[in-house]
Every structure is written in structure tokens, then in C-alpha cells.
Recover the amino acids of this structure.
């Protein structure tokens, strides 16, 4: 059973005129949910009571306080020219974490569903422990991974990030850990500059980070080959208890930022492969979080394919 999650606070994060990360992205993603026939499965404005505690585990208290104060005091930027804020941005970023944790609880604790797609903004995968970057403030997918690690029986969490940009924040948060595997397909070299193939984690985490760089202009063939040849093998070796997706659709051929040529059909195909892996290793359970995607039609079409594939029910479930 697939559920879709969103929150009214996401719309109030105002990035100003001309910024690509706007509230209309929520409408585009929801249009994709509608096209996938999943509008009836949308839950809104449900957050998890562990939200504050988990944010404090992933980010420093000082960082959280600075962001809150910056939003309250009417500042227009936080840490980076890429990160405009408004008075409601702190609440929106916090709601993204709270919504994703509520979805995780429905899947892994209540067992009411086995798949979730979270239509959230701001995105999260560039946010580091003490630094906001690339339109991101709190690292939502890292918060979900941390929460899952507290659940009995969940010892290994696999995060697959297929946003066109490398998820530097998620990588750095789990760089020295073997209990959260971070794998990413992304354009390289490109923003944010990290994600080379030789970044593989360090210390105890060595070998538990995998970066698959792609050149600008590449399309479906290379993108899907990376999934078939690398991601499938990694997941089969790692045998995770939970699979999380940082789902950015900015490698889409229409995207104004990504410079790649991936189609919505490839996002559907990628998602089917991930669902098969989840069926093999973790009872079909997948939580997918919206990260990037800046062309409204590209985002709607890609979301439709992604959500359709997540909603597939196989005879094994
Ligand atoms: Zn991106």
C-alpha cells in the first residue's frame, strides 16, 4: 500500500522572485500524483513527535537555533546566496522532517503501508550538519535514516540518491558509518563539487559510500545501466533492512538546471528496479522523498511515473 504525504507549511517557505525552488513545485508534483491515480492516498499535515529530537541528532543545536533566529528576524538569506529564507522557512524545513518521519512510522512501526512518497520542500540532501546549501536547510533523508536506526531490527539503511546533484550533506553525515549506506548517481563535475568516484567513505564507513558520476548530457541508457550494474549489486551485497530514496527529478531532459537527458520513463524503470530490490531484502518497503526537479512539466511527468511504479503491487507482497 502506497501513501503520499505533504504539509501545508511547505507552501509558506518563500524563496522570492526568480528562484527555481518555488511552491509551484508542490503543485507540479501533486499533478504527477493525480496522473498516477494516487490522489486518494494523500495525507496532509501529519507530523511525528520525534521531529525535534531527531533534528538535534543530525544537526547541531546552534545550527538549528541560528536558522530559527534568522527566519524570525526577517533575514532574507541563510549561509548561502542559494538559500533565501522567509519568516516561515524554519517551520517548513521542520515540517519536511516531521512529515517524512510520520511516513516512516507508518511503514516501519505501524505497518499501515509499505511505500511512501513525500511531496516536501525545501529539499534536504545538500544540508550538512552545520551548513545550509543548495536550497536545503535540514537534511530530511538523513533524519529518516537516524530515526530508523533507533527501531528494533533495522541495523542497515540504504539511501539511494538519484537527484542530478550529489547529496554532499547526506554523504558527509554518514561518511564514517557502516550502518547507513549512501549511494548516488549524479552529474559530475557539477554543483556542489563533491561526488567523485573515489569518495567511498572513511574509517568504519569505508566502502559504505558509492558515487556514480555521469557526464553532462547523458540520458536514459547510462542512467539505467548504473542502476542495473551498480545499485542492484550493492543492495544485494548490503542486504538493507530499509531503503530510502532521495528522489530528485532534475536529471530530466526538460530541467533548466540539470543539463541531462533522462526521461520520465527512465524514472519509472529505476523505481521498478528499486521496488524489486526492496521486495528481495526488506518486505517491499520504500520511503521516497522529493528533492530537486525544476521544470514543472518534467516534475509532474516524472512524479507520475515514479508514483505509479511505487504503487505497483506484486504477487510477492
Ligand atoms: Zn538537484
Amino acid at each position: 500500500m502506497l501513501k503520499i504525504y505533504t504539509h501545508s507549511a511547505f507552501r509558506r517557505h518563500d524563496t522570492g522572485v526568480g528562484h527555481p525552488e518555488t511552491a509551484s513545485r508542490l503543485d507540479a508534483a501533486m499533478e504527477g500524483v493525480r496522473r498516477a491515480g494516487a490522489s486518494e492516498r494523500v495525507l496532509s499535515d501529519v507530523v511525528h513527535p520525534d521531529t525535534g529530537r531527531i533534528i538535534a541528532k543530525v544537526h547541531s543545536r546552534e545550527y538549528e537555533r541560528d536558522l530559527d533566529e534568522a527566519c524570525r528576524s526577517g533575514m532574507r538569506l541563510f549561509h548561502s546566496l542559494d538559500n533565501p529564507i522567509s519568516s516561515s522557512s524554519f517551520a517548513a524545513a521542520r515540517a519536511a522532517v516531521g512529515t517524512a518521519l510520520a511516513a516512516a512510522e507508518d511503514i516501519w512501526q505501524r505497518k499501515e503501508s509499505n511505500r511512501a512518497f513525500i511531496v516536501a520542500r525545501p529539499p534536504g540532501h545538500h544540508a550538512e550538519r552545520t551548513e545550509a546549501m543548495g536550497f536545503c536547510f535540514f537534511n530530511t533523508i538523513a533524519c529518516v535514516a537516524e530515526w530508523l536506526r533507533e527501531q528494533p531490527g533495522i541495523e542497515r539503511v540504504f539511501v539511494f540518491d538519484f537527484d542530478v546533484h550529489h547529496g554532499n550533506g547526506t554523504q558527509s553525515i554518514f561518511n564514517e558509518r557502516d550502518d547507513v549506506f549512501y549511494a548516488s548517481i549524479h552529474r559530475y563535475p557539477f554543483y556542489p563539487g563533491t561526488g567523485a568516484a573515489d569518495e567511498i567513505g572513511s574509517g568504519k564507513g569505508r566502502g559504505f559510500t558509492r558515487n556514480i558520476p555521469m557526464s553532462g548530457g547523458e540520458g536514459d541508457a547510462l542512467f539505467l545501466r548504473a542502476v542495473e550494474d551498480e545499485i542492484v549489486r550493492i543492495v544485494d551485497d548490503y542486504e538493507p533492512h530499509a531503503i530510502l530514496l532521495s528522489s530528485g527529478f532534475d536529471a530530466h531532459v526538460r530541467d533548466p538546471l540539470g543539463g541531462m537527458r533522462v526521461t520520465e520513463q527512465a524514472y519509472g524503470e529505476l523505481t521498478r528496479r528499486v521496488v524489486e530490490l526492496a521486495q528481495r531484502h526488506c518486505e517491499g518497503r520504500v520511503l521516497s522523498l522529493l528533492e530537486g526537479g525544476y521544470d514543472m512539466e518534467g516534475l509532474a511527468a516524472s512524479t507520475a511515473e515514479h508514483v505509479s511504479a511505487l504503487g505497483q503491487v506484486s504477487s510477492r507482497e
Notes: The chain has one domain: 2-310. The chain has a mean pLDDT of 97.
